[in-house]
Structures are given as C-alpha cells and as structure tokens.
Amino acid sequence: MNNSPDPQGKWQAYLSKALAKCRTFKFPAFYKKPKFWRNLAILFLFVLLSGLGAGYYWISTLDVSKLESPLAKPTYIYDQAGNKISQLSSSRIEPVTLEQVPQLTQQAIIATEDKRFYEHQGVDFRSILRALIQDLKTRNFSEGGSTISQQLAKNLFLTSDKTLSRKLKEAGYAIKIEATLSKEEILEAYLNHIYFGEGRWGLQEATRYYFGKNAEELNLEESALLAGILKGPTIYSPLQDKELALQRRNIVLAMMADQGYITAKEAAQATAAPIALRTKPLDNLSGKYAPYVDYVIEEAINRYGFTEDQILTLGLQIHTQMDAKVQQAAETVYKDDQFFPQGQSDQKVQSGIAILDQHTGAIRGLVGYRGESAFRQFNHASQLKRQPGSIIKPLMVYGPALEKGYRPDALLYDGPLDLDGYAPKDWDGQTRGWVTMEEAIQQSWNIPAVWLFDQIGIDTGKAFVQKAGIPLTEKDAHLSLALGGFAEGVSPLEIAQAYTAFANQGLMHTAHAITKITTADGHVLAQMQPESVQVTEPAHAYTMTLLLQNVVQQGTAPKAALGSRPVAGKTGSVELPPTQEFAGISKGQKDVWFVGYTPELTAAIWMGYDQTDRDHYLTTSGGSGPAVVFHEVLSSALKDTPIKPFEVPAGYVKDWNIWPEGWDDQDEYDQNKDDDKDKKDKKGKKNKKDPKDKNEFWDLFQDLWS
C-alpha cells in the first residue's frame, strides 16, 4: 500500500477553492458611474498635456545652432601665374548654396528620400505608418520612413545606433529643425552634409569625385545616380557595383516620373543612357605644396593679421608668388635622402631652403623640413634661429668695408690675433701673414674677417646687416659678430633676403609670398605693398658678386657650380660649442649653410639637427651638403631658362687687379706681392713680420690709395 502524498491532487484542491471564492466575490460597479469616466478623461487629458508640455520643453532645449552657423568654406591658394595650387579647409565638406544645385538634382533627392518634404513638419507619420506596414509584410524591417529633416538631425547630432531612444531624439531634433529653418535652408544643409559613399560628404565633393565636375553642372542621369546612392552608399556606389548602381538610378528616374518631376519620355531617355564616370585623375588640391602653403599661412597671420580659423573657414582666395617649377624642384630634392647627411635613427638631419626672385622679393619656392608633412609644423626655412657662421661675413664685414673704400685687393692681416681676449682661428689652423680681401673671402679665412671688422668698427657692420633686414639684439655688440656669433641667430629666409641686395645691384626688396588676399567674390582684404631699401651702391654690390663668384669657381663652394651659368655664393659652418659635452670631438659642426644666387634666383640653405648633442652633430661643411642641395635645386628649377650674365652697373670698371702706380719699386709692396705668390703656389708659407709693422704699412697704403 502506497501512503505517499499526492502533490498534483493537493494543488488541484487549492485551485478549486480559489476559483470558488472568485465566483462569489463582487466587484464594485464604479465603472458604471458617469463620474468615473469623467475623472478618467480628466486624468488622461492631464497625462497627455503633461507629456506634450514635457515634450515641448525638451524639444525647445535642443541646440540646433550648428545648422545656423555658416559652413566652413575652403580657402584656395594660387601661384604666380594664377593657377589654383592648394586648398585649405577645416571641414571635409565643400559647401554649395541651393541656388548652385540644379532643380532636377533637388527633385531627384526629394523624390527618393522624402516625397512629402514640403508637407510635413519634420516627422511624416504617414510615411512611418507606410514603412511599418511594409516592414510587417516583408518581415525584414528595412524601410526607414525618416524624413530629410530626421536624416539631417541624425548626421549632425546623433549616433547611428538603431534604438528607440535614438529614434525619439531624431524626431525631436527634426521638429526643432523645422521650427528653426525654412524648407530651403533645410534642404541646402542636407545636401551639404549627406554621405554619398567613397568617403565623400556633401553634394559638391561627391559630384567632383564621381563625375569630375561641379554640382551646378549635374544633368538628370547624374542627379538620379547620386540620389540612388543615398539608400545604401556602400551598396549602390557605381565604383563598387556599376550594374546595381544603374538599376537603382533607373528606379529613381521612374520615381521622378511618377511624382511628376519629369515626363515619361525624359525618364526613358535618361534610363537608356549609360553611367559616365570621371575618367581623369582626381585633382586633389588638399595638401598640395604643403611646405610652401605652411609659410603662406604663417605670412597671412603674422603680416596681415588673419587668424588660422579665418584662413580655414572663410573661403579666402590667396594669391602668391610661388613658381610651381621652382617649388617642385625643391620638394623633389628634399624627398631624396642622398643629398643630405645620413643622420641618426632617432633624429633626422633637418634642413630648410628659401628661394627668392631678387628683382621683386618674391618667394618662388620654400621647403621648411625633411620627412613627413604635418599641418603647420616647424618651418626651418622661416622660423629657424641659428648662428649663420661665415655666410654673414659679406654682410657684416666685407660689404661695409667696400663702402668705406676698401678694395678686393686690399691686404688684410692673417696672423696671430688677440683683440681684448678674443682670438679667432682660421679653419685650417694656419696663418698666412697678409692676404687680399679676395683671398680671404674665397677661402673663408676667419682672422682677416675679424681684423677687418675691428678696423671698420662694429657699429658699421651692424648698421649694414640691419639695413639688409637681419635682426640683431642688444647683446650683439662684439667682434665675434664677424663670424656669425649672434645671440639669437637667423633663418634661411632672412639670409636669402639679405643676399638679394648683392644679387640686385644693392636694392633689396622685402621677401614675400602673398601678393593679395580676397574674398570668393573678389573683394580685396589685403594686398602686398612693395617695400625696398638700397642696402649698398650698385658698384659695391657687383664687386661683391664678383668676389662671391670666385668662392664658387675657386674657393670653398665648387659643388654649388651650375656649369656655364654664373653662380655667386658663400659657405658657412658653425663649430660645436667648446663645452664639456663635446670634449674630444675635433671636427664637428652644429650648423652648416650655403647661400648663393644666379642672375635669376637667390637661395639660402641650412642643415643641422633640431637637438644637437654629443650623439647628434654634423661632420660635413657648408661647401658639401648645402652647396650640393643648391646645385640640385637650382639646376632643375632653371633647366629651361636661358643662361645670362650678371648685370653690370653703368660705368662699372673692375680695377682691383691693377696695383696703384708707383708701387712696383717699393720693397715692402714687392715683398707682400711675393708672399702672395708663394701662398698661391705653396699654400701655407707664413709671413713672420710683426703685425704692428704691417699695420703701419697698411695705414700708409690706405693714405696713398685715397
């Protein structure tokens, strides 16, 4: 006999008792009273009004001011010939106005994306219901039902997730947009923000990418193709599946005909047309000529007072003096590592070059860095401040000396020298007693330069370089200025500008890249006002040119030579500072320079490390790396330019190789003449005469000369 309990029977008993009690329970009949329904109606109305009020308040707090702000317009930069060479913008969109968009294009978009666009107020409940019914029929829930205003809201203010909360926010933003903007403003904003696939945002960018034209040139077939892409940019892109894109385009054409935008005949003709895409390479101006453009931005900010934001958003038209041939030559060389010292794995040898037209001051080419380009990175051509070394000698010493009456055959002291504790040395560690100015410049001897600088006076040299646009500080008041010992230093652009005075018969024009800045409709906002200064007399400038030609032909810069084309130039090197960090390094340079010019162009090149230390210094000279870069850039830039000589000033006579009459029988003069001959033949024989005696001789020589 089984005495175990029966669970099922027990629960059935409990359920029977509960049902019996329910049958006997009497509910109150309050729902039969009119008062109940009145109160219920009031409650419902209260909840409804409260919900509407809360919704209205929430919508009113939504910020759509972004739509009222004008879209960033790209700024275009032009070269000296008026060709558009670069584009700057803070946005991925190039905006168009609704007036620029063909009516057929607008209609194709509306017919496809929101055919009741002009009837609803942001949310089309009829379209939503129709989409829901269609989704229930197909059970794939692919129909969106979103209006143009909703899509605009999603693109600008929301994420792309498919949640109920996002859809509610989308509807709220759409209503706020409709209450804030007109239908025309909404459609314009939509056309500028919608995604057309292939990384293209906005109608203008898409039109250029797919068809190689501007939006205002779109025809019916192209308009329908772009409108068809919007349903699925990755699916209907003609670059991904041309056949599928064609089918979608023809569906759009049929929809336009159904809605009365085009006739059946027009639809049939457009349907029969094949897809015609861009065949030429896309001319992408963004990032083009970046090194030069970086300087253009720098000049627009520093010289004309524009802000970076204005340059990137106002659609400015900036006209410059860039010569594409010169700039391309410089960029090509700067991308080729063979023309630069190898450097270290953790730090590249940097460089900067500035190339000017000495006749106008126009910056024809400029590269401010080596390696990968980044927007407005440090510009070694214009922002660098480094000691110039020997390239300053023609400006600080020899140019002023020519003005004071010294001639290239003047004898300069090149022996042991100590001026109030300052004792310069020649780069080869030797002395030659007395050398001519021509020889001192040709071989870049230091002692003669310092000795002559002391003779003409520090203030005389400073006045000359300052007239040539080289900045000095209050600390720059010592003899080491003759060798480039500046407190702050100079940039290649400043040096190139200064040397244009020698290249242009003493007249220096202010270096500039920008000629004018205008609005998109041509209103001039800023314009270059020509500025020039007569740094020295034409005869002195030409004499310096002849001396600097000798540097290239027979001196320290043979690698800068351009064959039969005349070249004048000067090398410069800055030794490592005599600190404990560099102890034991016998041959090391911190900076190396070359500045040179032809009858057409003037260029200055600097090389060095951004951070010089015991592991990062140069072992080359200005006559090697920078001179080679000058040769490579200028030979390419002037490849098709006819060769011509430097212009000779009117009435100029080259007479410094004719010694003054009556000096041939003077023993002192003959001795110096013989010493000079020995120096040229044997290179190294020293004159042991007392410097004081030589000074007395020089004073006599100068008296007779004058």
Architecture overview:
The radius of gyration is 40 Å and the shape is elongated. The protein is α+β, with helices and mostly antiparallel strands and about 700 residues long. A hairpin with a 4-residue loop joins strand 13 and strand 14. The strands form four sheets. A five-stranded mixed sheet has the order 2-1-3-9-10. A five-stranded antiparallel sheet has the order 5-4-14-13-12, sandwiched between helices. It has 24 helices and 14 strands. About 45% of the residues lie in helices and about 10% in strands. Helix 11 (about 240-260) packs antiparallel against helix 12. Among the domains are: about 30-60; about 90-270, Biosynthetic peptidoglycan transglycosylase-like (Penicillin binding protein transpeptidase fold, Orthogonal Bundle); about 360-635, DD-peptidase/beta-lactamase superfamily (Beta-lactamase). Pathway: Glycan biosynthesis; Cell wall biogenesis; peptidoglycan biosynthesis. GO terms for molecular function: penicillin binding; peptidoglycan glycosyltransferase activity; serine-type D-Ala-D-Ala carboxypeptidase activity. In the C-terminal section; belongs to the transpeptidase family. In the N-terminal section; belongs to the glycosyltransferase 51 family. It is found in: Cell membrane. Pfam families: Transgly, Transpeptidase.
